[in-house]
Design brief:
- The chain is α/β, with parallel strands linked by helices and about 375 residues long.
- The chain folds into 3 domains: about 80 residues, no CATH class; about 180 residues, Rossmann fold (3-Layer(aba) Sandwich); about 110 residues, Helicase, Ruva Protein, domain 3, CATH 1.10.8.60.
- It has 14 helices and 10 strands.
- The strands form 3 sheets. The protein has a 6-stranded parallel sheet with strand order 7-3-6-5-4-10, sandwiched between helices. It has a two-stranded parallel sheet with strand order 1-2. Strands 8-9 form a two-stranded parallel ribbon.
- Helix 9 packs across helix 11.
- The relative contact order is 0.11.
- The structure holds adenosine-5'-triphosphate and magnesium ion.
Amino acid sequence: MAADDQPPKRSTGFGYYRPEAVAPTRVGSAGACAPPGAHVPAAAGAKGPGTTAEPAGPADPADGVLADDAVLDLSTDSARRDVDETLERLDRELVGLAGVKRRVREIAALLLVDRARSRFGLNSSRPTLHMSFTGGPGTGKTTVALRMAEMLHAMGYIRQPKVLSVTRDDLVGQFIGHTAPKTKAIIAKAAGGVLFIDEAYYLFRPENERDYGQEVIEILLQEMESERASLVVIFAGYPDRMDTFFSANPGLSSRVPHHIAFDDYDHGQLVEIAELMVAAENFRFDDGGREAFSRYLELRMARPRFSNARSVRNAIERCRLRQARRLVELHRPLTRTDLITLTAQDVYGSSVFGSDSTPDGPARAPAADISAADPRLAVPS
Ligand SMILES: Nc1ncnc2c1ncn2[C@@H]1O[C@H](COP(=O)(O)OP(=O)(O)OP(=O)(O)O)[C@@H](O)[C@H]1O
Ligand SMILES: [Mg+2]
C-alpha cells in the first residue's frame, strides 16, 4: 500500500496531532478534500467551547489535506473560540501585564497557524513551548501559568489543562540514587500538562559540586527534548537569579524559547487590582474606604517584603476582618449595604498607618496554599 493510501495516524501520547502523523490524502481522492478554491472551516472536527475532555488537534485527519488553493477560515476554528475565551478572561481578570498578555496571544497564534498549516499537509516540527516566567513576588506568574495551560490544552498542545507546581525539594533526593527516581516520578505525574518549577534557581548550586540539583537539570534536559512526556516546563522565579541560572545552564536556556517577564505593578494598577479583588468577593469600598486603601498602598509599597498583588489580597483579607469586627460591635440589625461595604475605618486599622509593626505575613505563600485556591493547580503529595 502506498504511503498516501494509509489511514491517517494520530500520534499516541500527545493531544497534539503532529502534522507528520497525519497521512496526507491527496487532492482529488474521494470526498476527503475540499475542492480547489473552497472556503472551509479551520478545524471542523474540533470541540466546542468549554470542552475539556479531549483537546482539539490542529487538524482533523478525517478531513484530509486541503487543496493547494483552498482557503482556510481561522475564525471558524472552534479551538480558537476556546482560546479567545481564555484570552478574554486573562484580560478581564488580570490588570496590566501587557507584555505577558501579548506573548500569550503570540503563542496562541503560533499554534493556530500551525493547525492551519497541518490542514494543508505542511509538515513542521511541534513548536517548542518551554518557558520561563520571571518577576517579583505576587506579579501573577502562577496565575498566568494556569491560563497558559488552559490555552495550550484548548489548542490540543497538551492533554490536560493541569499545572503541577514543584520546587527543588520535590525533585531533589537527599541521598545518592534518590534524585533520578524522584524527578522522574514528578515528570510522570506532570505528563500531558504543565510542570511549573518555582524558584528554579535553587536547582543549581555552583558552590556544591556534588549537588543533586544538577542531576535534575540533566533529566529535565532529556525530557524537554524528547517530547515523550508531552510536557511543557515553565521555570519561574525572581529575575536576577533566573538570569544567573540560565547563563550557568546554557543547555537549558537554549531549550526555553519563551522568556516572559512580569513587571512589578505601579500604584494605579494595584488600586485597580484591589477593586477587582474586592468586587470578586462581593464587597465594595465606599469613597472613604477607597481613598484610605489607596493611601495604604502608597505606604505599603515602600515597606519591606512588599509582594505586589499578593500584598493587596492579604490587605483586603485584613480589611474584611476589621469590617466584621466593626459590624459585630454595631449591635444593630445589618443591611446588605453594611455587609458589602469596606470603609475607611476598616482600612485605617492597619499597622501600616502605625509606626513599628510588620504589615504583612510571609512575602511568598507556600505552593500548597496557592494550589488550594485553584483546584487545577496540583502540588505533589
Ligand atoms: N494583574 C493582576 N490582576 C489581578 N490580580 C492579580 C494580578 N496579578 C496577580 N494577581 C493576584 O495576586 C495573587 C498572587 O498572584 P500569583 O500567585 O499568580 O503571583 P506569583 O507571581 O506566582 O507570586 P510568587 O512569586 O510569590 O509565587 C493571586 O491571588 C492573583 O490572582
Ligand atoms: Mg507563584
